[in-house]
Amino acid sequence: MEELKNRYFSLNSALNRDLGDLNGLKISYLRSFKRKHIFTHRDKLKSHISTFDEIDREYRNCLSTNGAINDLLLKNAKVSVLEKARSLPSDTISEYQRTILNSEACINFNVTTAIAVIALFLSFIGIVT
User: Fold this and answer.
1) Nearest 10 degrees: CA dihedral of 113, 116, 117, 121?
2) CA-derived radius of gyration, the chain
3) DSSP string of 62-118?
4) Is the pLDDT of residue 13 over 80?
5) 90 Cβ neighbours under 8 A, 6+ residues apart
């Protein structure tokens, strides 16, 4: 169980590092037309989720209820600690997903605004000529 806890912590560290990278990006109008960074972070998120699922499969094996009462009490305490360690990457994955969605919304707004400004400019040129 100690190994699982350490794997959850290392996954959370990787998630926080990638989330920090995403939060550090400044979305300008020019960058809005290049969505490569969003696709890169989506791929990273998928990779983190698959790692989380892999660790979870091992976590489920720790949830058996075989043994004497003293063994079960000790196992319950260990699983409780492991459950708290599991919640860290789970919450960070949710935050990462929200940040990606917010970045996409900001990019879509910038693109829509740029298209509207171009349309206004073209209609103004049409009126003048």
Assistant:
1) 170
2) 23
3) TT---S-HHHHHHHHHHHHHHHHHHHHHHHHHHHHHHHHHHHHHHHHHHHHHHHHHH
4) yes
5) 52
